[in-house]
UniProtKB/TrEMBL annotation:
Protein origin, superkingdom: Bacteria
Enzymatic class: isomerase
PANTHER family membership: CHORISMATE MUTASE
Protein's UniProt keywords contain Isomerase: yes
InterPro entries hit by this protein: Chorismate_II_sf, Chorismate_mutase-related, CM_dom_sf, CM_II_prokaryot, Isochorismate_pyruvate-lyase
EC number(s) from the headed UniProt entry: 5.4.99.5
Entry protein name: chorismate mutase
One Pfam family this sequence matches: CM_2
Length: 104
């Protein structure tokens, strides 16, 4: 790993970005494994895929982390809401659409 300030060429920067992208994909795969497990646990408990208080908790967590790392919280929130929506759709694939939303 070469730190950003140590990169002396675009080739080095691109190689490091590619490395980070591989790591991010691996982390998304790990997160997805937890989503898949959550769906298997939620089914017998009759829990919906979308639990609004948890969604908002996750969003607040990532906004806080974005701020800590000097990233724009609004942008990170938009990215994470897309990720959350994808994750919920994946859970619904296991649970079925009738368990996609919390009861009103």
């Amino acid at each position: 790993m070469t730190r950003p300030e140590e990169c002396g060429s675009m080739a080095e920067i691109r190689a490091e970005i590619d490395r980070v992208d591989r790591e991010l994909v691996a982390l998304f795969a790990e997160r997805t494994a937890y989503i898949d497990r959550a769906a298997r646990i939620k089914g017998p408990l009759k829990l919906p895929a979308r639990i609004v208080p948890r969604v908002e908790e996750v969003v607040e967590n990532v906004r806080r982390e974005a701020d800590v790392h000097g990233l724009p919280p609004d942008l990170i929130e938009k990215l994470w809401r897309r990720l959350i929506d994808w994750s919920i759709a994946r859970e619904e694939g296991v649970l079925g659409p009738e368990w996609g939303e919390e009861p009103k």
